[in-house]
Amino acid sequence: MRWNALLTSAPLKTALLRTALAGLLVLPLSLVASSPASAASPISLTSGFYSNPDSGPAAWVRNNPSDSRAARIQSSIASQAIARWYTGGESGGIGPAVANYVGAADSRDKLPVLVAYNIPLRDACGGHSSGGAGSVAEYRTWISTFAAAVGTRPAVVVIEPDALSDFSCLSSAQVSDRLAMLAYASQMFQQKAPNTWAYLDAGHTNWVAPATMASRLNSAGVGNIRGFAVNVSNFYSTGSSETYGNSINSSLGGGSHFAVDTSRNGNGSNGEWCNPAGRKLGATPRVGGGEDLLLWVKTPGNSDGACGIAPTVPAGQFSPAIAVRLIDGT
């Protein structure tokens, strides 16, 4: 994929930055102090999606060059732009971890996709990916640091998969806390990462009714950011996901935008969510269509948990066996 090279060339970006800085020198001090950084589309600032050379599939291929599956996994999965997930406990802290990753992408003029996945009581009902920050205060510090580490560099961020759908195991007080934390997260990306398209996760087509999800998104501050994401880590077809996303957007009044996770939806869903058989890789990441973006948010080949076709593989661990089945659709 190649986006507008003229707009994204390094010399032009430098010239534009110098012009902007020069313009600030003639503004009244009060305006400089009170005005937020102006937002730009991360698409216009980059020349394609960033492919992480250290993703789980890429690392496996690098460490297993003689494995008969390595070439296929490299070609079909590891070479693609896959989101980088941050789940708490990052070595050196969340700030340096995010800053280094976004910086690596920016140095190559590419657009990174990141996932913030550390809300307290994470995956409360599913259980396979349980965990998250230990308190509301801890989460607020973590997500604020995350957004600040992205800063003005272009990025796409998906905020807290399942957080607005996974309510059935929470008390009313826990739901209120969760909505407040997500609203705070949306504010942090609005204020500290102006060139980021941030999306609150909105579940999938067969989980929460569109009008209900729209209400939750409003409470979680979707108006502060680019919009919402659907089908993250699930298998529903792109068409089904677009219908769901458009229904949510209609309930929101039509002013939002959405992205679709297509990483494993090539054969659609069979109603199962935890390492189901017969699923297949979906369309590779791209811009445009019936939504903002098609993304690979879930890493193809990473287990959903010790279940389904991978009963001994923990959640988040890469399995070449799962990967090959997704390539073949078996």
From TrEMBL:
InterPro entries: Beta_cellobiohydrolase, Beta_cellobiohydrolase_sf, Glyco_hydro_6_CS. Residues 1-39 form the signal peptide. The keyword DNA damage does not apply. This is Glucanase. Belongs to the glycosyl hydrolase family 6. Its EC number is 3.2.1.-. The keyword Protease does not apply. GO terms for molecular function: hydrolase activity. Keywords: Carbohydrate metabolism, Cellulose degradation, Disulfide bond, Glycosidase, Hydrolase, Polysaccharide degradation, Signal. The active site is at 162 (proton donor).
